[in-house]
Design a protein that fits this description.
- This protein is mostly helical and 137 residues long.
- It has one domain.
- Helix content is 84%, strand content 0%.
- It has five helices and no strands.
- The protein is globular and about 55 Å long.
- The N and C termini lie far apart (40 Å).
- 31% of the residues are buried.
Length: 137
């Protein structure tokens, strides 16, 4: 691997790592605001970051695709998509929340929660795509 290739690879690693730090901190702060300040359920905090992150990743990916309005290099794309969105969203916490509800015997809430987050996340991604497509015109 040449020196230039190593620099490019290192730049991608740093972009993802820094983005993940930003996304993870944003997830933590969303949870703090939703649970501690607003007094709402932790389930809503997890749902919110997943739904919002789905919108962000699709909106950004659509804006920065080859025919998009926003020209962003590979490091910038990885910073937002793999880094920020990867750190912000949390499938594992959603899985944990669902199993806790199941262990507590609340099958109905577990199913509703899981289905709602998945459907709302997909709808949010579609909305992000639709909004970015209009901007790309």
């Amino acid at each position: 691997m040449s020196g230039n290739d190593r620099q490019t690879t290192l730049r991608l690693y740093l972009a993802v790592g820094c983005g993940a730090a930003v996304g993870s901190l944003a997830r933590f702060l969303c949870g703090y605001v939703i649970v501690s300040l607003l007094g709402w359920s932790a389930l809503l905090a997890t749902a919110f970051v997943n739904v919002f992150g789905s919108w962000v990743i699709m909106f950004f990916a659509t804006l920065t695709r080859p025919d998009g309005r926003l020209m962003v290099g590979p490091a910038g794309r990885q910073f937002v998509t793999s880094g920020v969105c990867g750190g912000l969203t949390t499938f594992s916490a959603m899985s944990l929340d669902t199993f806790i509800l199941l262990f507590e015997g609340d099958l109905g809430l577990a199913a509703t929660y899981l289905a709602s987050v998945v459907v709302l996340s997909l709808a949010s991604a579609w909305l992000g795509y639709a909004m970015a497509i209009r901007i790309n015109r």
